[in-house]
Amino acid sequence: MTLLAEDLLLLLLYDTSGKPVVDGTRMPRVLAGAVLLELALGDVVTPAEPGEDVKKGRLVARDGARPQDPLLARAVDLIGTSKPMKPEAAIEKLAKNLRDELAKRIVGTGWVREEKGKVLGIFPTTRWPEVDGSHERALRSELSAALLDGVTPTPRTAALVSLLSAVDAAPKLFPDADRRAVKKRAKEIAEGDWAGKAVRTSVEAVNAAIVVAATVPAIVAGSG
What we know:
This protein is mainly alpha-helical. It has a domain at about 5-130 and about 195-220: Orthogonal Bundle (yeast vps74-n-term truncation variant fold), CATH 1.10.3630.10. Helices cover about 55% and strands about 5% of the residues. It has a two-stranded antiparallel sheet. It has a two-stranded antiparallel sheet with strand order 3-4. A hairpin with a 3-residue loop joins strand 3 and strand 4. Helix 2 (about 25-40) runs antiparallel to helix 7. The longest helix is centred in the last third of the chain and has 19 residues, at about 195-215. About 40% of the residues are buried. Residues about 215-224 have low confidence and may be disordered. Its main location: Golgi. Pfam families: GPP34.
């Protein structure tokens, strides 16, 4: 199974141009949020609860099976070997080089290709136009059912919606639909009761952290 962060990156790239749908401040941070949410869904890393030795809301690496995916395993190591971090601080650390690493992975699957160029002949740019749209079409079909048709999403699809909602990207995936209605539905799903308490807490923490991190990255970087 692909990572949430891989699926999210694929959705956040325009198919034809290969350019990102969201800006360079929010993109790496929402991808990092996807990594945290993946770990929360697996009960691998979740915010501390009242009564634990760790301050409430700080991230805790739980005892259990180590993720097999090397990217997730590195994230667990980062969180588990540091002093307990706030989600926004973890996002800042996880975001470093994450987009490029995930891009290599989706290039490797054959879903997109990498195109390098320069703006004004000086500034380097990278784009990832679509090559094989089958996986993204499947993702969009699930998202469409949830956002446009009112179908109750699976926890994984709901997690994707919550991340898209955090960067206000859901309406951009369905430009022919009512933007306000899509945005409202995405928010409803993001705030809905589709996951257990630990994941629910993680969704709220991750979404808030993405907003904070994208707004004041310099301040957040030192808030761990």
